[in-house]
Amino acid sequence: QVQLVESGGGLAQPGGSLRLSCAASGFTFSTSAMAWFRQAPGKEREFVARMYWSGSSTDYADSVKGRFTISRDNAKNTLYLQMNSLKPEDTALYYCAMTRRILAGQHSGEYPYWGQGTQVTVSS
Fold first, then answer.
1. Which of 123, 116, 88, 122 is nearest to 5 (CA)?
2. Are 88 and 123 contacting, i.e. CB atoms less than 8 angstroms apart?
3. pLDDT tens per residue, range 53-95
């Protein structure tokens, strides 16, 4: 069955960096569009970044553009999110999401498969 397992979350200081990983199994990773979403306490889940199956196209939320970078290693079946210049408002539970389609957008409903999330806390 499809499994998405996030890791790499933790506590970071403002201005610091973290790299999240999402280990995927149970499907053909190399032909699947992937994305990162996040949900802060008391808020709705929001789009962070997405990448087409080939890595040829990426898209970011305005709030993270220029600070976060999504990437994938199809040989390792792993999706990454490099987060730099972290801010307290980046604090949230971060989710990896997948669709078997090669293309997908920013809407959470486009992604049928989700990981359990990894907590990111940005605080001094």
1. 116
2. yes
3. 877 789 999 999 999 999 999 899 999 999 999 999 999 999 9
Alpha-carbon distances of 19 from 75, 82, 85, rounded to whole Å: 18, 4, 12
pLDDT digits (tens, 9 = 90+) for 10-65: 999 999 999 999 999 888 887 889 999 999 999 999 999 999 887 778 999 999 99
Phi, psi for residue 83 in degrees, rounded to 5:
-120, 115
Q: How far is the CA of 92 from the CAs of 12, 25, 26, 107, in angstroms?
A: 12, 24, 27, 18
What DSSP string describes the chain?
--EEEEE--EEE-TT--EEEEEEEESS-GGG-EEEEEEE-TTS--EEEEEE-TTSS-EEE-TTTTTTEEEEEETTTTEEEEEE-S--GGG-EEEEEEEESSS---S-GGG--EE---EEEEE--
